[in-house]
Amino acid sequence: MSSTISIGGLLRRPEAGAALGLVAVLIFFAIFGGMTFLKPAGMASWLNVAANLGVIAIPLGLLMISGELDISVGAMVPFGAMTTAVISGHYGMPIWIGVFAALGFGVLVGLINGFLVIRTAVPSLIVTLGSLFAVQGIVLGLTVLITKSTSVALATEGPAKAIFGDFVMGGQLQVMVLWWLGLTALYIFFVHFSPFGNWIFAMGGDKISARNAGIPTERLTMMLFVLSATSAAFVGMCQAILYNSAQVAGGQSFIFNSIIAVVVGGVLLTGGFGSVVGIFFGTITFAVVTQGIYYTDFDRNWSSLIIGVLLLGAVLMNNTFRKMALSYAPKKGGK
Amino acid sequence: MSNPILALRAVNKSFGPIDVLHDITLEVKAGEVLCLLGDNGAGKSTLIKIMSGVHQPSSGVIEIDGVACPLPSPRAASEQGIATVHQFGGTFPLMSIGRSFFVGVEPTKGWGPFKVYDRRRANAIAVKAVQEFGITRIDDGDRLVGGLSGGERQSLAIARAVHFGARVLILDEPTAALGVKQATHVLRIVNEAKRRGLAVVFITHQVMHAMAVGDHFAVLIRGAVAADFKKGEKTREEITDLMAGGASMASLEAEIESQMAQA
Ligand SMILES: Nc1ncnc2c1ncn2[C@@H]1O[C@H](COP(=O)(O)OP(=O)(O)O)[C@@H](O)[C@H]1O
Ligand SMILES: [Mg+2]
């Protein structure tokens, strides 16, 4: 019953492994790369990577906590970017139409994913593998058909540029970082403080019992798929506005990278366990490794090795901590 | 004593061409434990799935408080106060005791969109509810359900059902996977639920466990009620004999010996 903070209590939290992993990675790069990557310019480089990844990783992580998976995010990023660029760049319509169309397609693909998952017995990995390829095909096919090109330029000015695709604080930090921090705070509230968060964990623990307990599991599943697809479209849309162009390719790296961030962040692959803070740490860890390597003497190709080792290490550590949490029983009279 | 809370009248169930239940008529009364005995495959699980709204009877009637009342879904059954606790009790092993206790009906504090889950209150109520069932070792609502022993998990699930107003408690083989001490625990809690006036349907194939808590017994053989009797009307040997449906007495003796060694 006590709410005193103890080392044991911290280690039993889902984000324990991610926090330790992050500290280890920071120490590693501080030793081999000096402190440059912790100075403003260095920090901007990995914060930008973390922000774009994190906006997608958290809803993906929530889906994984609820027992599902969404790999179609890899196609939704270019889809969001290309929708914005074609509508507001190629056709020259107002940017807000492009913005809402991109988000609207995100909602639509999320609804389709969610509907297929709850109406068929097909696992969400397969459903979203299908929509990954389908959406990739649509993006490539339509873009070439409409623009006769695989890259579309887009010039944005005014508030839309400032809100979605600009640099802030002296010109190195993407505005996405602010979105990411704000969204993370919102997710933390909804998942860990509002009563609804409990439903996501219950679904991942046992979907049938959750439904029998009165949780609208199907509606919640749909919502989570909409959230992940729309978040990915949002990131793509923002990137198109930031870089003033969109490409049909790219985006696939988000699939593995966000799953890595989520798993390093302590989310159990089979669902029912994890935390937003953990995913947040996992995302930063991933970004620090991929960007920190530039500040060391190592060739950047080694960063994949580090990420691989990190992933395995984090999973093993998370398993250990989860076992500790499971077997934890307070001793009478102790602390 | 009183009128039955839940009754099945001439219930049949078939899955396509397979007839699983034949003409089942059973009653459960408040403050009474009905033990459903039967070998593996006798149809016990199918029967309780009908009582809990998972399956619909192919024919026959379910009555609640003497009135015909179909149970089209598990939701409908739980709204009628029928709660099912499965073999492993806690279904959310990685959730805390407090959170799993209140899944779907989370207590909140604060107002409007800033309502937050009231962890302290949830934990306190959950812990109090299990402790009232005599499980005093559970005193921290932040512990994960998966860390509890099998008996404690069963107790938690039963306490939860009772807390949320269950009138009929269906326990599907609650003691099958438990050791002697844990099973005793669960049996004590079954007695406590009965003392509080719940109707309990207790499914088991361990005669010893049934005899420890049962007021009323029904033996199911190949989907039909082969015997229906009250406490004290039959000896353990007779019950075992019935369950085995005509196996030789010698092999029964051996079986009883081993069961007694287990229990
Ligand atoms: N959904 C189903 N479809 C077809 N047959 C089933 C189904 N459920 C149960 N049965 C059959 O009904 C019989 C009784 O099963 P069950 O109720 O699980 O028995 P018990 O719980 O007493 O061991 C078994 O022969 C089983 O194969
Ligand atoms: Mg069974």
TrEMBL record, chain A:
Keywords: Cell inner membrane, Cell membrane, Membrane, Sugar transport, Transmembrane, Transmembrane helix, Transport. The chain crosses the membrane at residues 16-38, 44-64, 95-118, 125-146, 177-201, 222-243, 302-321. GO terms for molecular function: transmembrane transporter activity. It comes from Neogemmobacter tilapiae. Part of the binding-protein-dependent transport system for D-xylose. Probably responsible for the translocation of the substrate across the membrane. It is a multi-pass membrane protein. It comes from the Bacteria. GO terms for cellular component: plasma membrane. It holds the Pfam family BPD_transp_2. It is found in: Cell membrane. Its main location: membrane. This is Xylose transport system permease protein XylH.
Automatic annotation (TrEMBL), chain B:
Residues 6-247 form the ABC transporter domain. Pfam families: ABC_tran. The keyword Cell division does not apply. One of its GO terms (molecular function) is ATP binding. It comes from the Bacteria. CDD domains: ABC_Carb_Monos_I. Keywords: ATP-binding, Nucleotide-binding. The keyword Metal-binding does not apply. InterPro entries: AAA+_ATPase, ABC_carbohydrate_import_ATPase, ABC_transporter-like_ATP-bd, P-loop_NTPase. This is Sugar ABC transporter ATP-binding protein. The lineage of its organism: Bacteria, Pseudomonadati, Pseudomonadota, Alphaproteobacteria, Rhodobacterales.
